[in-house]
Amino acid sequence: MELTHPLNRTEFGSSDHIGNLMSEEQAMDLLRDWVKNEKLLFHMQQVGHLLKKYAESKGLPSQEVHLWHLSGLLHDADWDQWPDEHCKKIIAELEARNQDPRLIKAIASHGPRYFGVDPDSELDKMLYAFDELSGFVHAYSLMRPHGYDGMEIKGVKKRLKDKSFAAQVSRDDISDASQRAAVPVEDLIQFVIDHQLRE
Ligand SMILES: [Fe+2]
Ligand SMILES: [Fe+2]
Predict the structure, then answer these.
(1) Is residue 49 included in any domain, yes or no?
(2) Cα dihedral sign, 61-127-176-13
(3) The whole model's pTM is what?
(4) DSSP class of residue 98?
(5) CB 190, CB 152: distance < 8 Å
(6) How many Å lie between the centroid of ligand 1 and the Cα of residue 76?
(7) Which of 96, 135, 147, 181 is the most exposed place for a label (fewest CB within 10 A)?
(8) Per the database record, which ranges form the HD domain (predicted)?
(9) What spacing in Å lies between the alpha carbon of 50 and ligand 2's midpoint?
(10) Which listed ligand is nearest to 46 at the C-alpha?
């Protein structure tokens, strides 16, 4: 399998910086600076929101919830201006700002087929899992007359089988992420339906 954006590294950030996390406002400032594409910005906000809700549902302490939220918020920050350097650029920025290595590692492993870095922690795996699925369910909501209202797992699964619908979304990544996270794809879909940030 060819890696399109190989990072060729396994260590990210420094353990000296565990617990160093920028505020949500600082993350939004960085995004406003780097991301002109409103859809991409909203995608990151959606993934960040799902991770925040998931961390809360697990009863994690507020600092961890914030870590999960930031990982989603920033994971594609460099995609708009530097697609060829995705996700090297954001990793370098977060390292320069002495950010928590768990945040940087989660972002580095959000596309194992592209970056060649395996998701290890639960955060890594859930970022990978929600990334594609959030975008897919969002696309599905846009074609439904009442958006998310009345959306069911079976409708989402039917669209997943229809390869022409949202063709850019990798079905392989969705099932791979679900397996790695050991969370059935149906449960992931239901979580997205219940918690997705709406426009
Ligand atoms: Fe990405
Ligand atoms: Fe993404």
Answers:
(1) yes
(2) negative
(3) 0.97
(4) T
(5) no
(6) 5
(7) 96
(8) 43-134
(9) 12
(10) 2
> Distance (Å, rounded) from C-alpha 63 to C-alpha 193?
25
Distance between first and last Cα of the chain = 36
CA distance 87 to 80: 11
Q: How many CB atoms lie within 10 A of CB 14?
A: 14
How many CB atoms sit inside 10 A of residue 122's CB? 17
In a domain, 174, yes or no: yes
Furthest C-alpha separation in the chain: 50
Number of H helices, E strands in the chain: 10, 0
Give per-residue pLDDT as tens, 60-91.
999 999 999 999 999 999 999 999 999 999 99
Centroid of ligand 1 to alpha carbon of 176 (angstroms) = 16
Count of structural domains within the chain: 1
Q: Is the pLDDT of residue 2 over 80?
A: no
Q: What is the CATH number of the domain that holds 137?
A: 1.10.3210
Separation between Cα atoms, residue 99 and residue 107, nearest integer Å: 12
CB–CB of 174/187 below 8 Å? no
CA 72 – ligand 2 centroid, Å: 8
Nearby residues of 158 by Cβ (< 8 Å), 6 or more positions away: none
Q: Please tell me the distance between residue 43's alpha carbon and the centre of ligand 2 in angstroms.
A: 7
CA distance linking residue 17 with residue 33, whole number of Å: 24
Q: Is residue 177 part of a domain?
A: yes
